Amino acid sequence: MIRETDFLSLKSRKAVLKEVSANEYDLAIIGGGVTGAGIALDAASRGLKVVLLEKNDFASGTSSKSTKLIHGGLRYLKQLEIGLVRNTGTERAVLHRLAPHMVKPEKMLLPLIKNGTYGKMSASFGLWVYDLVAGVTGDDRRKMLGPKATKETEPMLDEENLLGSGVYAEYRTDDARLTIELIKTATRYGATCLNYFHVEDFLNENSQVVGVTGKDLYEEKKVAIKAKFVVSAAGPWVDTIRKKNNSINDKTLRLTKGTHIVVDKSDFPLKQSVYFDVPDGRMIFAIPRGKVTYIGTTDTDYKEDIDKVEATSADAHYLVDSVNATFPSLNLSVKDIKSSWSGLRPLIHQQGKSPSEISRKDEVFQAEDGLISIAGGKLTGYRTMAKKIVDLVISKYDETKKFKKCETKSIPLLERPLSGVAEVNQYTLQIAERLKKGGIEDSDYYADYLVSNYGTSADQIVSKGVLAMTESSLIIKELEYSVDNEMVASSCDFFIRRTGRLYFDIDSVIQFKEAVNKDLCRQLDWSESKKAADMADLEAAIKSALSFRVEEQENEFSI
Ligand code: FAD
Hints:
alpha+beta
């Protein structure tokens, strides 16, 4: 008998695979990004028997490469996408309620500059409509500031061009952690979610898709899985999957790349998040987080390898130049960049539009053989996208009534949920206190990190007694927790998708990479060659986070 929690540990992989190939599912989902994970939770909580298959790690596609905002998308208002703004705007409050430890309120400063995107009147009106459409109330409603108050709020802004600013409410999150918590919650409702399972083809009967075939990359085993319905939530890979059953029609994906760069907070000491104009007429974000500030994003058409998306030297210079134009006292340089990530937006092709002008709306494709695909959309809208897909699947059953209505609006994304900001703060203080007693120096930072990542499961990482703790003993406890509960299969899974350390604390990756690799080897009983391969993958990921440096060095040599 496999226990519920064993489904999220590689230690029971063989038994889970046996069960998966012996079962018939109501729904098989291809893709373990936020869209697939959201569909898995919605479907499982309504009583469908669900299997989710992810070819790499959960959230390894676009869902760990976003700006990490749960937002209404102010700029979509300018494009008159009222429906999109209403949907994502109202979802912000829902997601905050479901996971207050992970979806946190964040005030955004919108500086108004001479000849910028927004003038004083249009910003004031736009933000008022934004609040209205998204149902924002009370203190969260927009405030307009004059130049002096703006300069006090963010002293690094260029005084010369400043007309004032708007301050409005958004939420910040961690996209990969959101996806993992959805996977964990879906598992609690009975879904089986496997990472490192590559779907290669479909099972067919009477010209209808009745399941998938694929390879378990961990056990290196071919498996066939039967399912009444198959949904592809493969993000940028949706067209690759649609090619397998020849179902590409007149609507195809247009992939655009978005890069973010990360610098030390001391190099860009922002007081709060800012959404600002850049010289080419676009707008980008700068967001403080823990020890760093991150900046993004670019938006350029992408036609290269979709399995290897990296920042180029041009991306890095574009973002650094944009920051320097708005915050001239900084003098940031590409050499200051500590890390970066780049992801692909799976947008729906629209003739004659530039990357930034294409709609971010989601689109559902239904093939004649029954395959359902969903692409486009936003992290913020994952729950409503999932509802749309599961409603569609259920409508195809003869006895629709045997399944429940969508309940995800009230399913918390933690086993032991926290009720709101006050309880999150109180719990974080308790964890900080325990860390301090155990001898951890930066206990406030560490407590915030652990609670934002794991919520009340931080209890399983931080000892309750007066045991002495060190950063290295703590990271091993963290690793043990994520191997047993979050299907960690490699150092990259841990350092990138479970903890975000590669992006937000790359020094700690360098410091602890050997210890983590060694302990994974112990926990997962690896051979020496598997251990070496894991380390090589991590070194490659570290290099990839600084990919633009190679081009920079080449340029230096050629000068
Ligand atoms: P993905 O996360 O890409 O998931 C698809 C998964 O399918 C992948 O993990 C892939 O490995 C898997 N897969 C593919 N083929 C197979 C196969 N054959 N077998 C098994 N698995 C397979 N949205 C917001 O709301 N807020 C933001 O701040 C924001 N910022 C963004 C910034 C950037 C730069 C980008 C690119 C996007 C941003 N978005 C944002 C949009 C948001 O990130 C995406 O809409 C969302 O992450 C897409 O999730 P997904 O699950 O559809 O795709």
